[in-house]
Amino acid sequence: MSLNDKLKDLRTSGIDDAKRAERIQELNDLRVNLLGKKGPITKALRGMKDVPVDERPEMGTLANNVKKDIQAAIEEKMEELNRKIVAKKLEEETIDVTLPAQPKKYGTRHILNQTIEDIEEFFIGLGYRVDAGHEVEEDHYNFERLNIPQNHPARDMQDTFYLTDQLLMRTQTSAQEGRDMESHDFSKGPLKVISPGVVYRRDDDDATHSHQFHQIEGLVVDKNVSMADLKGTLEALCRHVFGAEREIRFRPSYFPFTEPSVEVDVSCFNCGGKGCRICKYTGWIEVLGAGLSHPNVLEMSGIDSTVYSGIAFGLGPERFAMLKYGVNDIRDFYSNDVRFLEQFKGVN
Amino acid sequence: MKISVNWLKEYIPVTHTVEEMANKISLTGIESSPVHNAEGLDKLVVGHITSISQHPDSDHLNITTVDVGEDDDIQIVCGAPNVANDQYVIVALHGAHLPEGKRIKKGKIRGQESNGMICGLDEIGVPTKYVPEAYHKGIYVFPEVVTPGTDALVALGLSDDMVDMDITPNRADTLGMRGAAWEIGATYDEKPKYTAPVIDEAKIVDSNDLAVDIENKELVPDFLVRTLKNVTVGESPLWMQRRLWNQNIQPVNNVIDAANYVMIEFGQPIQAYDLDKLQEKRITVRNAKSGEKFSTELNNQDDDENTNTILNKNDLVVAAGEQILGLAGVAGGISARVTNETKNVVLESAVYDGAAVRKAAQRHDLRGDASNRFEKGVDNGAVSDALVRATQLVDENAHASEISDELVGVGTEAKPTVIKSKISHINHLMGLDLTAEKIMSIFDRLGFTAELDNDDVTVTIPTRRWDMSIEADLVEEVIRIYGYENLKGTLPTGMETAGGYSPKREFSNKLRNILLGQGMNEVINFSLMNKKESEDFNVIDTNYTKLLHPMTEDHEYLRTSLIPGLVNNVAYNQARNNNDISIFEQARIFDRPDGVDRPNEIEYIAGAISGNIALDSWNTQSKQVDFYDVKGIVEELLSFTNIDANFEYRATNKISNLHPGQTAEIIADGQSIGFIGKLHPDYQKEHSIDETFVFELNVDTLFGMEKRNVQAKTAPKYPSISRDLAILVNKDIESGAIVKDIFDNGGKYLIDVNIFDVYQGVNIKANHKSLGYHLVFQNPEDTLTDDTVEKAFDVVKDSLVQKFNVEIR
Ligand SMILES: [Zn+2]
Fold this sequence. Notes:
The complex is a heterodimer. Chain A starts with a helix and ends in a 6-residue tail after the last helix. By secondary structure, chain A is an alpha+beta fold. Chain A has helices at 3-20, 24-35, 40-45, 56-93, 111-125, 139-142, 154-157, 175-183, 227-242, 295-300, 317-325, 332-335, 338-342; strands at residues 129-130, 136-138, 167-169, 191-200, 212-222, 248-255, 258-267, 284-293, 309-315. The mean pLDDT of chain A is 92. Chain A is rod-shaped. In chain A, the strands form 2 sheets. Chain A has a 7-stranded mixed beta sheet with strand order 1-4-5-9-8-7-6, with helices on both faces. Chain A has a two-stranded antiparallel ribbon with strand order 2-3. In chain A, α1 (3-20) runs antiparallel to α2 (24-35), α1 packs parallel to α4 (56-93) and α5 (111-125) crosses α11 (317-325). Chain B has 20 helices and 41 strands. In chain B, a hairpin with an 8-residue loop joins β32 (612-614) and β33 (623-624). The interface between A and B is large, with 89 and 94 residues. The structure holds zinc ion (ZN).
């Protein structure tokens, strides 16, 4: 067999051996055995002396090519086996991703506080201060300063928890109006404030009444505020809370501390105004009361009502949340069943 | 008040449906809703009984023939005791629908053909209490001839469409048809037309058979009476009766009905008395004597007997000497009631102080149509007219022989209110730019007289709108008639203001966020609790604050701790199998110092954790909450307060209802800021809850404490060196004390001490425990040498041996 043929045979058998290898070790052995100093190629090259001189360079090249080819076959197989090993390992490590997670719970903020804070942040964006006020309040601020003297029929509407003759659980967050007005320095700009908080009424608790509930009072006093400003402000609020397509409407009403007074309806977010159960088939839902500050209320705080005017509004977070999320029983907010609370995860 | 469209048409043209009207009136002035009466009723006609005979097989049934406006009379068997020939009656024809789905069909009654039913008013939907007494047992008989075949519902006014106006207390001017017509007229730009009431001049005499003497003119600004002689009391004409029962007023007789009718028409309550029943011919209005008794029909409509109302000295009564005729403005008495036998009548038209009437009506639970009007106010410009109208109606229906002049007990001049304003200021407040002409036309529509002088406007308000007194009232009238829907919304302009939360609120928001981040759900509880709850956790040892008039014992005391509310929440949830609970509340507690009425309102934050904090799952084992879990939450919360203080957990057994061995008071630089602990097993049992850990912190105190002044330091470049320390120590020595001592002696490079082992039990000396600590040393400036650390470590060990008698292991 000529050297040429020998080398070609070695190439063929070497490549075949590499391809047949099943383990890395076999390939390593193959490399040592075939390509090493004691390997058959080296041995074969010792027969070079029998090759005519002019053919020797050709044989040298062939021998190198044979080595390269075998080397390449070994490397290719080596990669293939490595891929298989990794693949096997990956397969062994495969888990059932549908198994439950390790709980990493973030708590849920109470839905009333979510509702309140959403509204607070809306007004903060408009430059309103948030002033929570007192839950125990003087009759003076809760009633007198709001143009509701003793014997005023409006006191019938709100049966009050008194602590003493003069101290009571505030029945409305409007009670903060007098305090905000009298302490404000108008040389520093307009008074713009919202007063969120808990209020109390002598009511029996049932699906629609609670002896304790929340209100947010809003008040702006400046030289140049008007009913149009009130409408624009509440329009923006209702769109923020109930959706960008909402319209509002004003209906005349009566509150002792505002004149004119209005009830504010928002177009039904459920039916868009066509009429449904939620809006009692009117297309409108009553959401809050508002008005221009009564001149008496301004004057009692030492504000000249011929120069300044005020817009005031009061809304109920319970009512907002009940409407928005279809809560039918106000008591659900206060029984704090965690299943009830947790359904509001992330709504605001 | 329900406004009948038919009645309203006497004053203004009405062309809209009640739905349209109610909507428009709601948007312009007063919340209103449409009312359709007698819906679903049909085939009810007026019948004339043309013959009557006894039913052959019954002693209480009659066989009648009735002209119902058709070619032939129809035969109807009737069992009513008051049926008689020649009566005009309500007939339900074959196929008629009655209320509550009742259907009339022809048939035979004991063998006799009956082609319909003769009805009583209650059978066609008038509540019995508004049916005239005479027709309570039996059929209704029309008081006058009505063409047979006429729709009975129309003849009785029962199908009148109405608009129900639900007034706010300031709009009592619409509690009379005339005022309502003004309001609705202004809405539709229609001025109402009224016929002025008149009395037959020929009958007027200068009478002196009754004196009127009012003591308390403060509370009775107007008191007018007239007397009518030789009247014939009887049934009122149908037109009046039907308007009364449509107003939920029972027709009684033609005197009392006229008085009630004028109340509806004018909004002015009128009282009628039998002149001959007055024990003295002198009427007074005075305060009642304590214990005086008074009988009225108002308070016993469902009783057969009159009940006595015991009066007190704050009650104002209309009296004739000792005889009490009525509780002023609230209720007429029975002592001088006008009956069918009455010959001579006194009519009273008065104004009473609203607050006095309101209180009296409340005091005696006698609220009614009259008191409702007086407490909200009446038009004192119409007192005399209303009296003329009542007199006219009594005379027309009961035919007096003579009528007295108006006898004035007290009269107050009714002055129209004059309001001065500026067109520009009205526009300014509305945010509109209406022309003077437009605004003037609105005043005219409302029946106000206005004079314009450049920008100045002077508006004279008729007395019927006593709610109007200031410029803001004018603004309201202009804008509502102009239409709120025409107002374009704007936002307040003016100087920019920086809005935001108060710093304290920012602080409490931060604390709430930490607890949310720890997976705790936020709850909101009531501030008012029962006595036991408030006593259970009066940790701050304050005075209780109690309501004067609680609704229930459950909500009587202001809370002094948030814990009882949280415990209720745990109980509520665990009763519903929500067993693993982690909740917190941030709210106020009420701390009332000695000697003051007003409690301080202090912000607190509190939490409760019960059940497991980790659940049994495919790869984890459940873990029940323990003290250290809750302590971890509290520590993280406190670290986020950024307070520059050392927080110390001091074991306490002083807080009732907490476990004496698993409770710590939390101290910050000597100041108590709250506690953390396990509920006492007895307390848990009492509330049927699992093991529960709670904590409560005073947010106001935390907010007030000095905060760390953070100055950035680069992260240390040099490696740290650590040493482990194992000691054996008496089991009563607290780890906190040991750690403190290690820090005290570890030198300036000791930066951290962690406990990694606590062991007590087998292989440990009795009454001792083994503790393992990991100490970390670091020099931020340079590489520490083992030598330096070893020296510091020795000092630490020596001190522990000396102070705590520890064995170094
Ligand atoms: Zn709807």
